[in-house]
Amino acid sequence: MKMLKSGLLTIFALVSVIGVSCSDNSGAAAGGQEQVSAVQRGSIAVEITSSGNLALSHKEDMAFQMAGFVEQVAVKEGESIKQGQVLANLN
């Protein structure tokens, strides 16, 4: 991040120098006034925006159609599953 700030500061300084040297000086010679600005070190904020899709998990409560004891749970909490996949076995 420090390298990025340093690079952006260098680019800003170069653009400022080029802008001053390429500006029209006819008004300055006629009016006799020049404007000089000192380069100052400061913070530069960079904002990156993006768009995309966010897939949210779907939480569902389970119920069995018959009574019994759960023998095996075939998936972990938070794991993605597919339709028709066995989630648990009853004894």
Give me the oligomer status: single chain
Tell me about the biggest sheet?
2 strands, antiparallel
Shape: rod-shaped
How many angstroms does the end-to-end distance come to?
A: 58 Å
Instruction: Work out the number of β strands.
Output: 2
Roughly how many Å is the radius of gyration? 33 Å
Q: Could you name the ranges where pLDDT drops below 50 across 5 or more consecutive residues?
A: none
Q: Estimate the strand proportion.
A: 5-15%
Percent of residues in helices comes to 25-40%
What structural class should be given to the helix and strand makeup? Answer: alpha+beta
Mean pLDDT: 76
Count of separate DSSP helical elements: 2
- Which strands sit side by side, in order, in the main sheet? 1-2
Order of helices and strands: HHEE
